[in-house]
Amino acid sequence: MTREFSAGNYRFIPSVFQYSAGAAADDGYEIERVRFDRLVPLAEGFALAAKFIQEAGRPLTAFCACELRSPAAFSEEGFRAFNLHYVKTLSEWGIFDGTTNPVARSNVCPEIDPPSEPSFYAFSFTRPTRSSAPSFVIAGGAEAREGSGTYVERTVRYRDLSPEGLREKVRFTTTSQMENRMTAFGFGWKDTTGVQAYSVHDFHHALVDELVRRGALRSGLTWHFARPPVVDLEYEMDCRRVMREVVI
Asked: β-pairing, 244-247 with 22-25?
């Protein structure tokens, strides 16, 4: 279920053309996460990421994950158009080959004070390390099953915002998205150092059974008041094990 991206010194879980489902550093390397102190427009964010990575003595192919913020949720057609624009830079960096994209990604839409254009929140890259501790980043996943079909067809409890509907969305995202992806790398919740959730709905009634009892909140939970990137998706998560994080 995983493939090597030797140019970046990491392996990844193949998914769709715009992103992979997760990235994990190879032996002898670790993932460093860099968060911007303020949101940075997409083009500027790529430029700053390139500068930071190169100053660390790493090739641009070390770029392995990013966290984006968009002004509002996209239609399916709008989301595809955005993604076709996004992957152009990854192609220029020698990362995206036109079919397979090894870079994990989260892209959500803040409900309050959103950016005026798609922007960077954070990015991650690999660098050499003497530590034997593993590191990984799992891409954002919402309550839509993978595979063919429209989001309407694949979304768990489509447009159901009842307490039980939200609980099922949280359960699906926790297990079928986050846990399955970590399992592909041989990891689990006990290995995470950070977990993030994205929703504008009250999902606290699902926290204990669907997250806490599963060990998902061993390092706490960062909740962002934001929507997933496609209209009518209501809950998204991502997680990571990263030992080195900085804010610039």
From this structure: unpaired
